[in-house]
TrEMBL record:
Record protein name field: IclR family transcriptional regulator
One Gene Ontology molecular-function label: DNA binding
Keyword line: DNA-binding, Transcription, Transcription regulation
Bias type Basic and acidic residues, positions: 10-23
Record keyword DNA damage present: no
Cross-referenced Gene3D superfamilies: 3.30.450.40, Winged helix-like DNA-binding domain superfamily/Winged helix DNA-binding domain
Annotated organism of origin: Pseudosulfitobacter pseudonitzschiae
Stretches the record annotates as Disordered: 1-26
The keyword Cell inner membrane is assigned to this record: no
NCBIfam families: TransRegBhcR (NF045644)
InterPro entries per UniProt: GAF-like_dom_sf, HTH_MetabolicPath_Reg, TransRegBhcR, Tscrpt_reg_IclR_C, Tscrpt_reg_IclR_N, WH-like_DNA-bd_sf, WH_DNA-bd_sf
Start and end residues of each IclR-ED domain: 92-275
Pfam families referenced in this protein's UniProt entry, alphabetically: HTH_IclR (PF09339), IclR_C (PF01614)
BP GO terms, sorted: negative regulation of DNA-templated transcription
Length: 275
């Protein structure tokens, strides 16, 4: 029998994080795991590294790095080339990354739109999102042309030297844009890269006005990209869609024509997201 004086309490909901979840001080981090992730992330960005090179470039001892690598190897996250004596990212890393892509319907909904865009323009179609101040490419539909752009899922690119990156930056309000660019070095990858903050802001103003961004050989010489933002139900730019190809096929005279197709694809994808 339940006492009327002491009614049963509501069952406590399980929490996904502790009350002090925002506290990122040393007491709430696992140093050994942090060191392991540093090695793992470094190897993912610089494939094929020797043990001594990894140790030097991550500023850790060879013994520590070796234990990290062996542990990750046991999980399939890295693998060792015994012939070349080099460490590489393993297949399990791809499996885990693919699970991230399945977390959202964005990639799934974008595939038919990207395929139509590729068929319509004859150039590679790309989909990217902003992650950690960079563009993370999450999907690509390649053209069948021999010479083509290649940005496999998982590739990271600086925002200021990417068509998708500039399309997303252009949709940020002043406060968010300032945060996104704070402390960033506008690296010159080619003579066409934008390395001046005022020049970048001027370029972003043009992007907003015309509705699409152009990477005019700013990341790679001989490659041009046209991109447009994709909006969700809240009218927030959550991704960018683009076509990219060699300047021999994507000339200055082709930008206007391709931009129409890219903007239409962005509008179609936005519509599927409620934008």
């Amino acid at each position: 029998m339940v006492s009327q004086d002491n009614p049963p309490s509501e069952p406590r909901r399980a929490r996904g994080r502790p009350r002090d979840w925002s506290d990122k001080t040393a007491q709430n981090t696992i140093k050994s795991l942090d060191r392991a992730m540093e090695v793992f992330e470094f190897l993912s960005e610089h494939q094929g590294k020797a043990l001594t090179t990894l140790a030097t470039e991550t500023d850790q001892s060879p013994a520590t790095v070796y234990r990290i690598l062996v542990t990750l190897e046991g999980r399939g996250l890295v693998e060792f080339d015994a012939v070349e004596q080099l460490w590489h990212i393993g297949p399990r890393a791809f499996v885990i990354g693919a699970r991230f892509l399945r977390r959202t319907s964005l990639v799934e909904r974008a595939r038919p739109v990207m395929r139509r865009l590729m068929e319509q323009t004859g150039e590679t179609a790309n989909l990217g999102i902003e992650r950690g101040g960079q563009v993370l490419f999450v999907s690509q539909v390649e053209t069948e042309a021999t010479i083509r752009a290649f940005f496999p899922p998982g590739t990271l690119s600086p925002m200021h030297a990417s068509g998708i990156g500039k399309a997303l930056l252009a949709e940020m309000d002043d406060a968010r844009l300032q945060r996104a660019l704070a402390g960033k070095t506008l690296t010159a990858f080619t003579p066409h890269s934008i390395t001046d903050l005022n020049a970048l802001r001027a370029d972003l103003a043009q992007v907003r006005a015309r509705g699409y961004a152009v990477d005019a050989e700013e990341r790679n010489i001989g490659m041009r990209c046209i991109a447009a933002p994709v909006f969700d139900i809240h009218q927030e730019a959550v991704a960018g869609i683009s076509v990219s190809g060699p300047t021999s096929r994507v000339g200055l005279e082709d930008i206007e024509r391709l931009s129409v197709a890219v903007r239409a694809a962005a509008a179609d994808l936005s519509a599927t997201l409620g934008g």
